[in-house]
Design brief:
Blueprint lengths: L22 H10 L14 E2 L11 H7 L10 H13 L4 E5 L2 H12 L5 E4 L4 H9 L3 E4 L20 H11 L6 E5 L12 H12 L4 E5 L3 H11 L8 H10 L3 E5 L10 E5 L2 H14 L10 H14 L2 H20 L12 E5 H4 L9 H13 L1 E2 L1 E3 L1 H4 L15 E5 L7 H16 L7 E5 L10 E4 L9 H14 L1
Parallel strand pairs: 1-10, 3-4, 5-6, 6-7
Antiparallel strand pairs: 2-8, 7-8, 9-12, 11-12, 13-14
Helix pairs in contact: 1-14, 2-11, 3-11, 4-5, 4-10, 8-9, 12-16, 14-16
């Protein structure tokens, strides 16, 4: 019997028009943006896969909740609704809201890190590592080796390597390790999950030595789904149950509600220790806002509280990751090199494998993201040497083993037809990959350079060869109109 098709578990009530630009327009836009997809105006983007952060479509329940915003400066009822949701689904008794995830990272780093400390984690994330470094710590990557191999099909490539962790603790001493930063559905590894067994083992190791475990819970719901699907003994548990189990092994969490919680702004720091929470509540007043609003309007707190409940619904999370799989499997069938297994929030193109003619110091992932925009109007994000930044001591570029372009799918925004357009666009670019040129910096900011840096092509005035190609494409576009 032929397998039945599936559909998204929602209906569309409101639509936002999008427009396909011409190739000549995209050539101009990418040059004006310095070949950095972050600097392209959203109105000039056809399908926006830059990020899943704050780009979700909210439900009718969330929009209704927005109308119930209590905008009192102190003690908003929406804060207490959010506190209740966090306690129910994540299990942290102490809640400090922040304007987004990096606000929580900042508070945690200020609270727990002393100059000279060492923070191990399962692969860095850009803003997390920067906050740790600004607080005086050194970050150490203790993820398993398989995470650095895009072709490895290890089911839990986000796992922490206990031997690497122990070697670091033995070297620097447990008293210089304030906490382990445990990310789930590890972003820069390709959206790879962490097993429940590994979370438990890390927790037991750390707590036996007086080291706290702090979770980056940004995409913890997606990680819970992978645990349900891949880990022995977990199939009979709900995603909500698994999420709570994961958090139970940790001492706190930073959260960007802009991902799993299906809102456009917001985050929080969750803690178990009341004394540490009291310090965080005092610090949040300095940097974010009063401890019962944390830089957010009451309506945003309410939308996040509702979104937390929606995020663990089984049909929703199955369809969310199913759309990522739809895109990834089609690209694999076409021979496009991607990170395997397919992750939870995005498909990661292996730019180093796609563009072997471009050396690492000419940033192949950045060049590929720019070329994809020119090819199709699809906006993606570089996740390679540009994102990795420079070594704080030597000033040299960091070159991670993974040089990737992230096709990040917003939640409840695009249909399968949009994914088909993305598939055709990536495949077309893959077939013409020899025409993509490397890039060099024309402007490089000091911090988080991938957001604002500008580039120009090396040895060419175009990111793709042949002005005739652009003219031909524009003529085809005009005829189709």
């Amino acid at each position: 019997m032929r397998q039945r098709s599936w559909a998204e578990p929602w209906k569309i009530k409101v639509v936002e028009p999008i427009r396909m630009t011409t190739r000549a327009e995209r050539e101009r836009h990418i040059r004006d943006a310095g070949f950095n997809t972050f600097l392209i105006k959203s109105e000039d983007v056809y399908i926006d896969l830059l990020t899943d952060s704050g780009t979700s479509a909210m439900s009718d329940r969330q929009w209704a909740g927005m109308m119930m915003g209590d905008e009192a400066y102190a003690g908003s009822r929406n804060y207490y609704n959010l506190e209740k949701a966090v306690r129910q689904y994540y299990g942290y008794e102490e809640l400090i809201p922040t304007h987004q995830g990096r606000g929580a990272e900042h508070l945690l780093s200020k609270l727990m890190i002393k100059p000279g400390d060492h923070v191990p984690g399962n692969m860095y994330f850009t803003t997390t590592r920067l906050h740790q470094e600004l607080a005086g710590a050194t970050f150490h990557d203790v993820i398993i080796d398989e995470a650095h191999d895009p072709a490895s099909t290890h089911p839990f490539k986000g796992d922490i390597d206990l031997k690497k962790l122990d070697a670091l603790v033995q070297e620097v001493g447990a008293d210089r390790v304030p906490y382990v930063c445990l990310a789930v559905t590890v972003n820069l590894a390709g959206g790879q999950p962490v097993s429940m067994a590994n979370i438990k083992a890390v927790s037991e190791y750390c707590h036996a030595r007086g080291i706290k475990v702090m979770l980056d819970a940004t995409r913890a719901v997606e990680n819970a789904w992978f645990v349900q699907q891949r880990e022995q003994g977990m199939r009979d548990r709900t995603v909500a149950e698994i999420l709570k189990m994961m958090c139970d092994y940790t001492d706190g969490a930073t959260m960007s509600g802009k991902k799993d919680s299906l809102v456009n702004i917001g985050g929080w720091l969750g803690l178990r220790d009341p004394k540490l929470a009291a310090l965080a509540q005092n610090l949040v007043v300095v940097y974010e806002g009063l401890h019962t609003y944390g830089g957010l309007a009451g309506r945003d707190l309410e939308a996040m509280a509702i979104g937390i409940g929606e995020s663990v619904e089984e049909e929703y999370i199955r369809s969310r990751i199913g759309q990522v799989y739809y895109l990834g499997e089609a690209l694999m069938e076409a021979g496009v090199p991607i990170v395997q297994p397919i992750g939870g929030h995005a498909v990661f193109l292996d730019a180093a494998a796609m563009l072997p003619h471009i050396p690492r110091d000419q940033f192949p992932a950045q060049a590929l993201a720019a070329a994809l925009y020119v090819e199709s109007g699809v906006r993606a994000m570089e996740r390679g040497a540009v994102s990795a930044g420079r070594d704080a001591k030597t000033g040299e570029n960091r070159y991670p083993k993974l040089e990737l372009v992230r096709l990040t799918i917003p939640r409840r925004v695009y249909t399968q037809a949009h994914m088909d357009v993305v598939i055709e666009s990536v495949v077309a670019l893959f077939e013409d990959r020899d025409k993509v040129h490397g890039l060099t910096f024309t402007y490089e900011p000091e911090y988080l350079r991938f957001f604002q840096a500008k580039f120009e092509p090396v040895g060419s005035k175009r990111v793709l060869d042949s002005a005739a190609e652009a003219a031909d494409e524009d003529r085809r576009f005009a005829l189709s109109e």
